[in-house]
Amino acid sequence: MTGNPSFNVFFQFRVAGGTNGADGFTFMLQNDPRGLLALGQNGGQLGYGAESGGPLRIINSLAVEFDHSNNPVDPNDNHVGIDTNGSVSSLVTADPAFDINSGNSYYAWIDYDGTTNTLDVFVNTTNSKPASALITRTIDINSIVGNMAYIGFSAGTGSGTNQHLIEDFSISGLETYSVSVPAMDQRGLILLGLILGVSALIGIRKVKTG
Predict the structure, then answer these.
(1) Of the ranges 46-50, 117-121, 127-131, 133-137, which one carries the lowest mean pLDDT score?
(2) Phi and psi (nearest 5°) for 186?
(3) I want to staple 23 with a disulfide (CB 3.0 to 4.6 A). Which of 3, 69, 78, 80 is the partner?
(4) Taking Cα atoms as reference points, which of 73, 69, 45 lies closest to residue 58?
(5) How many other β-carbons are positioned within 10 Å of the β-carbon of residue 183?
(6) CA–CA gap between residue 123 and residue 2 (Å, rounded)
(7) Concatenated DSSP letters for the chain?
(8) pTM of the model
(9) Is the previous residue joined to 23 through a cis bond, with omega within 30 degrees of 0?
(10) Does domain 7-208 have CATH number 2.60.40.420?
(11) Residue 119: which pLDDT band, with cuts at 50, 70 and 90?
(12) What angle do CA 50, 52, 57 make, to 5 degrees?
């Protein structure tokens, strides 16, 4: 493919269990040099970023965060945001009309129009896609991740614990193929439940984006 492709992502998620704690999760496309070994810090960094922009952040990446903890860079303890290059200081955020951390199952759609470089994020309490997006942002994904990227999810907790569960997932519009998930070190255990749960369902994929 040449130029930016268009794609559509859907997933069902639930945040539950633990101590009703923090912090949140992301859906991301990333072309970090570490590949499948790329892993951000825990807690408010959501397994995506790193304190003070340190080397553990996942670079060459675009993420949509679902954040239920009010950390210093956050607007509140219940928001959705668009992040790039391993920074959880979001380009834009919006507040869903439900509590992400309620323990209920919710639904998300992430649509990208490669012709207009428009990224739309929709959320709902049912599997009926809303007419209007919660977030709309113009962003050139190819300029961030290049023409190949891994897709998947990350999550993080800190002093409070929680489960971040992906209960259904689909993607269309990208050429995809499955790759094996490598073993993670002790530092990644906080993310294993989510990452390995997703990989068992759909595989972690490397996608062609341009």
Answers:
(1) 46-50
(2) -60, -35
(3) 69
(4) 45
(5) 7
(6) 30
(7) --S---EEEEEEEEEE-TTS---EEEEEEE--TTGGG----SGGGTTT--GGG-TTS--SEEEEEEE-S--TT-SSSSEEEEEETT--S-SEEE--SS-TTSS-EEEEEEEEETTTTEEEEEEESSSSPPSS-SEEEE--HHHHHTTEEEEEEEEE--SS--EEEEEEEEEESSEEEEEPPPP--GGGHHHHHHHHHHHHHH-EEEEE--
(8) 0.86
(9) yes
(10) no
(11) very high
(12) 25
CA–CA distance, 155 with 188 (Å, rounded to integer):
10
| Token digits of residue 79 | 């928001």
Q: Could you tell me the residue ranges of all domains in the chain? A: 7-208
Cα separation, 22 vs 19, in Å, equals: 9
Which tens digits make up the pLDDT trace of 9-62? 999 999 987 777 789 999 999 999 988 888 888 889 998 999 888 888 999 999
Strand partners, 15: 164
Q: Which tokens in the block code for residue 58?
A: 């996942």
